[in-house]
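Obj: model holo form, ligand = FE2/S2 (inorganic) cluster.
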Amino acid sequence: MALKGAWDAIEAQPKAADNVDIFWRCVSSYFHLFVCTGPTCSQEGAEETLHLLQKNLKDKKTQGRVRVTLCRCLGQCGNGPNMVIYPEGTWYAHLDEAGIEQIVREHLGEGKIVARLLHDPVD
Ligand code: FES
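Output (holo structure tokens):
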């Protein structure tokens, strides 16, 4: 019964194109970073990467626009430290200090992909 009520509420929403635009503006102003702190990435410097990321995010005042979640393994061991950024699903590997600064400045700040750190994840 509760599910049917929720579905009815969704169905009652207007289907205008305006809603798509509003939705897109909401998600495009919000990044969710998944940072691997699993065993292999930890050996490759994940903790330092995370510390640098937190410092850069604080310095750039991205609070409220960026959420960081730690993961135990992103399934890309050996390429670490690894991170994936949503909503677009951009994978970055071999993160280093310069890379973290560049990702925060360019990807999160200007919406530009940092090509030199891009990673094509293997399934
Ligand atoms: S431990 Fe980081 S990808 Fe597996």
